[in-house]
Design brief:
Strand order of the largest sheet: 2-1-3-4-9-8-7-5-6
Shape: globular
Largest sheet: 9 strands, mixed
CATH class of the largest domain: Alpha Beta
Strand content: 15-25%
Oligomer: single chain
Low-confidence stretches: none
Bound molecules: xanthosine-5'-monophosphate
CATH topology of the largest domain: Rossmann fold
CATH superfamily of the largest domain: HUPs
Helix content: 25-40%
Length: about 500
């Protein structure tokens, strides 16, 4: 077991997730929660990154260094180790965000099996300017001489970069090497994770019933499937047509739930209500809040209807996964809020208790679970689609015309990706309407219409993402089709922003 001490990085949970992928169990604790007993029960420690600069105020239980167990510090954690052992940490001349080249100086231990040159992901303002005495430099970059440091006798390592982020090409190998150094044997499997989730649901829910909002997305599908396995016909799936869905989505979702033989599946058409409440709302957080609250209103009234049939529902099931919680800042109390995913903006007076079977998992792990459960891979490989739907892809004020434009353009983009056999190569593809009108010319006449942005990204967990390098002729064909077939659009752009600094959705 590894203890991860969290200093507030946005990606701390990815460390746990990478270790889980290696079959190794880990827990995350805030520095002030770490107790002396933790140094006995755990086999190794990882100090995470964090947004602050190290200072004498930084909370660190010094017993960690006398525990004689391996320690790995990442970014802030690396600086903390350097400071603790008498090195110096200073603000770098240039802050570094993004890819950097690491030169490996020692290909044993932590870097075993790696080539001399490695692409790594940096995100820091400070760096280690002076090496602590007992340490050796095992890796450097152009901008920094102390990117990777090691105290071999004590098995203490520090890395300025983030091996847990997928942009660090061999990050998992580095973590694997650390696990090996710590002598930890893998024990976690997908099967025993499923069993743990099912047992947890049964313990938590007991004999009560659960209403589950489903969207046809992979998260709510796998979450509801697990709930169904756990509580059978005590699960009531409800699909709300918000009017913010993709073209033909409702029919597709109906087919999926019929095929998987869920005991109860109902469709509620509430598109008018949603569009009325959202009319001309521009702020993304307000959109999410309105949508989240309207969902709950509908669920509560549906629960009322079930109650009349003597079905007592006490829980609301949700397909929330870990990245939703991170960005909504519910993962830790020291990281910044990026956006509140709608399934987290529940009203305080909500009468239902929440059950979230996937709350600690990432999308690819959800797919793994789904596969192990025997769910059709076509369902599992659908691109993610956010709960607030097209509302957060119309940038700025919403109205029905703009939603319709996005829906049509989205249908063209997704259909063409599938036809060109590119759909599976992309993590998520979407269309956003930018609230800008530009001049064009069509049929010899002047046009003044909206701009559509196409976004397609590759990722493995949505925590970070790269723009998909779709072929130019494909993009040109999609652009032509959208301009020709979707009235109200005269310009199409392709988004080449990575995440970070961008996000995947526009709002
Ligand atoms: P961002 O835009 O935050 O998206 O980079 C990361 C992943 O989360 C999805 N997403 C949402 N899902 N409710 C959801 O259920 C939301 O409010 C929401 N916002 C973003 C997004 O589609 C992507 O897969």
């Amino acid at each position: 077991m590894i203890l991860i001490i969290n200093y507030g990085s946005q990606v701390t949970h990815l460390i746990k997730r990478r270790l889980r992928g290696l079959g190794v169990e880990a827990t995350i604790k805030q520095p002030e929660q770490v107790a002396d007993a933790d140094f006995i029960t755990n086999d190794a420690f990882i100090l995470s990154g964090g947004p602050e600069s190290v200072s004498s105020q930084t909370v660190l239980n010094k017993k960690i260094f006398t525990s004689d167990k391996p320690i790995l510090g990442l970014c802030f954690g690396h600086q903390l180790i350097a400071q603790e052992f008498g090195g110096a940490v200073e603000q770098s001349k240039t802050r570094q965000y993004g890819a950097a080249k690491l030169t490996v100086l020692d290909k044993t231990d932590l870097f075993a099996g790696l080539d001399e040159e490695q692409m790594v992901w940096m995100s820091h303002g400070d760096s280690v300017s002076e090496l602590p005495k007992q340490f050796r430099v095992i890796g450097k970059s152009e901008d920094c001489n102390h990117v990777a440091i090691a105290h071999y006798e004590k098995k203490i390592f520090g890395l300025q970069f983030h091996p847990e982020v997928e942009h660090t090409k061999n990050g998992t190998q580095i973590l694997h090497n650390f696990v090996k150094i710590a002598g930890i044997k893998p024990t976690l499997t997908v099967r025993n994770r499923i069993q743990t989730i099912i047992t947890d649901i049964q313990t938590n829910v007991g004999n009560a019933s659960v209403i589950m909002g489903v969207s046809g997305g992979v998260d709510s599908l796998v979450a509801s499937y697990l709930l169904h396995q756990a509580i059978g016909d005590h699960l009531f799936c409800v699909y709300v047509d918000t009017g913010l869905m993709r073209k033909e989505e409702t029919q597709e979702v109906q087919t999926i739930y019929d095929t998987l033989q869920f005991s109860h599946f109902a469709v509620v058409n509430a598109s008018e209500l949603f569009l009325k409440k959202l009319y001309y709302i521009a702020d993304p957080e307000e959109k999410r809040k309105i949508i989240g609250h309207t969902f709950i209103e509908i669920f509560e009234s549906t629960v009322g209807k079930y109650a009349q049939q003597n079905k007592k529902i006490q829980f609301l099931g949700q397909g929330t996964i870990y990245p939703d919680r991170v960005e909504s800042s519910q993962a830790t109390n020291s990281s910044a809020k990026i956006k509140s995913h709608h399934n987290l903006t529940l009203p305080e007076n909500m009468k239902l208790k929440v059950v979230e079977p996937l709350r600690d998992l990432y999308k690819d792990e959800v797919r793994q679970l789904g596969k192990e459960l025997g769910i059709n891979e076509d369902y599992l490989n659908r691109h993610p689609f956010p709960g607030p739907g097209l509302a957060i892809r119309v940038v700025g004020p919403i109205d029905k015309e703009k939603i319709d434009i996005v829906r049509q353009a989205d249908h063209i983009f997704i259909t063409e990706l599938k036809k060109a056999n590119l759909y599976k190569d992309v993590w998520q593809a979407l269309v956003a309407l930018l609230p800008i009108k530009t001049v064009g010319v069509m049929g010899d006449a002047r046009t003044y219409e909206y701009m559509i942005s196409l976004r397609a990204v590759t990722s493995s967990d949505a925590m970070s993402a790269d723009w998909a390098k779709l072929p130019n002729d494909f993009l040109q064909m999609v652009s032509n089709k959208i301009i020709n077939l979707v009235s109200g659009v005269n310009r199409v752009v392709y988004d080449i922003t990575q995440k970070p600094p961008g996000t995947i959705e526009y709002e």
